[in-house]
Input
Amino acid sequence: LSSGINAEYGTSVLIYNRTFEQIPTQNSMLRLSIVIVLLGFLCISDASTVDCITANTSSITPAAEDDQDDYVFEDELAKLKSIYSGSTETVLGYKYVTIHPVNYNEIEVNPCWTVQGSVTGHKVMLVAQPYPLGEGFCVDSDIDGFSQLCNVNEFKYCDDGVDGATFQFSCYQQSCEKQSINIFVKMVKSDSDDAGEIEYWCDSTNDTYPSSLIRSKPEVQPAYEGEDPSQTKEKYDSGDLATKVSLLALILGPLFLSLFF
Output
């Protein structure tokens, strides 16, 4: 009986140990499954939302680096002041892009830019700014790791490895709910493709925005063509003094006469 009890007890302990040996394993598998599912959701939520159609995609060849300083200030300012929606004119190399409201088309269409030509090894900079200023917009891209940015007023992306990459621009919340908004967009690539030479190119390249044309040069005031204030003041003071002396003589004259006669 003792041995039987021991045997039964031993069996019970064995089953107990097996049960607790299996539970952690099952829990680990369950936890691993949950983690995988969560990572899947995160990947979906972080995935690019770029959805371009051929009709609204422009293939852009990045401008040369040297072209960024080849502008006449007065000419660019004049073009900025006369720019209009749909214009093919460029300002400081920026193209004028229109983002239409959702109800503009039956299907929501947002403008896309695709990098054209070989830029392997080169740094490529994309800069954008709304005009007139004030309306924020969103930028998305199919580049790995790129997260959509919204409520943007001055956008700059600069990196290498962007061959064939696409960028899409869209409204931010109600920014163009009732009317279109316009943005200036420009893409530039480094002249060199040497990694050592262009390591800090993004920090030093010319990323001047069109709005700087207005900010940096106030309107010239017309030349003053009126009278010289200093001369006018002297004339006024001299005439005023003579008038006061005449009045004083008229008042005091009779008084002096009455004293002596």
